Amino acid sequence: MSAPAEQLRRPMLLPLDEQRLDEVLEIEQSTYQHPWSREIFLDCMRFGYSCWTLGWQQVDVYGIISISRVVQEAHIFNLCVRRELQRRGLGRTMLNHLLRLATARGAATAILEVRPSNTAACALYHSMHFRKVGVRPRYYRDNAGREDALMLMRDLRHKAL
Ligand SMILES: CC(C)(COP(=O)(O)OP(=O)(O)OC[C@H]1O[C@@H](n2cnc3c(N)ncnc32)[C@H](O)[C@@H]1OP(=O)(O)O)[C@@H](O)C(=O)NCCC(=O)NCCS
Fold first, then answer.
1. H-type helices in the chain, by residue range?
2. Residues 13-18: contacts with CB within 8 Å, 24+ apart?
3. Ligand 1 pocket check for 81: Cβ under 6 Å
4. What distance in angstroms lies between residue 82's CA and the mean position of ligand 1's atoms?
5. Is 118 a pocket residue for ligand 1 (Cβ < 6 Å)?
């Protein structure tokens, strides 16, 4: 990984392209028990979702959001930080970027799903003013079978980003 001096510089925010997809897949596979396949990432890019990476010399964080002007809603599909760089503010930085983008493109709300067992992600979203609006039963695969998803929503009109 990057040297500490390297990290004193700001990480670069870039749109995800196929060149950086291998790095994203490496993070995805080393982070999630049920990682997305290359095909899913390619579909996100083909469907025109906003796919972003953040990092110094390599990809360290990525985030994927779809933003619909028609229903004024943004849906965050993925947010992931390289394991050894977690808890340094990078997840929050990427989430802020995605939410600013959504606001600039006319979204009034942002929604996402999260595993209730994912305490780090739940704490991040809570601290960013996301609130529970529902549950999707048995939404995620897990080792014991299925796990529910919490549906979280944030109003983008009232809180400063
Ligand atoms: C969830 C995730 C994106 C957070 O990113 P991160 O860069 O580690 O988080 P940040 O350093 O930006 O932390 C922001 C806030 O989130 C919360 N948080 C982050 N990690 C936490 C942890 N391990 N335990 C408790 N709270 C945590 C805290 O409120 C933290 O604020 P604080 O440091 O001021 O207390 C990261 O842990 C990750 O990539 N996890 C694996 C993939 C994943 O689960 N993605 C979410 C799918 S819904």
1. 4-8, 21-31, 38-46, 90-104, 119-127
2. 13/52, 13/53, 13/54, 13/97, 14/52, 14/53, 14/54, 15/50, 15/51, 15/52, 15/53, 16/41, 16/45, 16/51, 16/52, 16/53, 16/62, 16/64, 17/45, 18/42, 18/45
3. yes
4. 11
5. yes
64 bridge partner residues:
51, 78
**Separation of alpha carbons 41 and 15, rounded Å:** 13
Residue-level length of the chain: 161
Please report, for the domain that includes residue 31, its CATH number: 3.40.630.30
Task: Identify the residue whose tokens are 């003013």.
Answer: 129
Quick check: is 161 in a domain?
no
Domain that holds residue 38: 4-155
Lowest-pLDDT range of 17-26, 83-92, 141-150: 141-150
- Does residue 38 form part of some domain? yes
In tens, the pLDDT along 34-51 reads: 999 999 999 999 999 999
> Is 0.90 topped by the overall pTM?
yes
Number of structural domains (the chain) is 1
